[in-house]
Write a structure and sequence with these properties.
Blueprint lengths: L1 E5 L10 H10 L4 E4 L6 H13 L2 E10 L14 E7 L6 H27 L6 H5 L8 H10 L6 H9 L14 H10 L3 E4 L10 H12 L4 E6 L4 H13 L3 E5 L24 H21 L1
Parallel strand pairs: 1-2, 2-3, 5-6, 6-7
Antiparallel strand pairs: 3-4, 4-5
Amino acid sequence: MIDLHAHTDRSDGSTDAAELVRFAVSEGIEALGIADHDTLAGYDAALPAAAESGLELVCAVELSTRPSEPKEEGKRQPSVHLLGYWLLSPPSAEFRCWLESQQESRRRRNLELVAKLEQLGVPVSLDEAEVYGRNQVGRPHFARVLRDKGYVSSMQEAFDLYLADEAKASVERDEPTLEKGIQQITESGGIAALAHPVRLPQRGPELASLLERLIDDGLQGLEVFHSEHSPADMAEYGELARRFDLVPTGGSDFHGDNKPHIRLGTGIDSNISLSYSFLENMREMCAARQHRTSDTV
């Protein structure tokens, strides 16, 4: 069994990187992809424990991006997540530097968010959020503080009232465009895959049209298997991957205690189960693409 989409406490997960490795081994997982948001810190921290335990660690990242098209009435487009996988070579130093610039934009957003929550009469300090997000503070960590201080009854209510894109305390973060994210991943030697497409507003022909456009921009993969995908979703996305010759990817999107209903390796109610051959197929498809590209140069 493998899981190619998991998060550590270096982004919005609750589990320490080395602890996640040990847990993966105990669950019988042969290969683990740590795909923290906008950082490779969790992957880097997990490497020594993975080497010691014999777990194969797959280098990955999940980028938060925005479509470049303007939304009606001047509203910004909803965030689109991209998965980057480095299956044949490590990411470049230039890509790592670019990721650090994304962390700086997140830090600026957090300071503005603190100020806005103060104005709304629900004061939350950055120090309080950092208790939960020691390495990278994001909106889920503010949601936990809002819940713990009694301002809301749940993390979902915190997002609905204060933190979601259209909520009262919403603060725009300077996120790269979807096209820029694809470019950064591919130029660094990785494959860019569209994450959990079930969350996108596009369905059916609209999703197919979006994929065609993004393939022209360098998209190479599609997350077919995910905890939030129904069997019908997985069948649809699998067919789209075959139709457009996209590398199928998959994983639980494990976040530890922050999303306790999702289990590492098996998702929600065991709705996913990927064998090691799935990862081998991904690598074979990437190698074939690389070979075809070199033949045309």
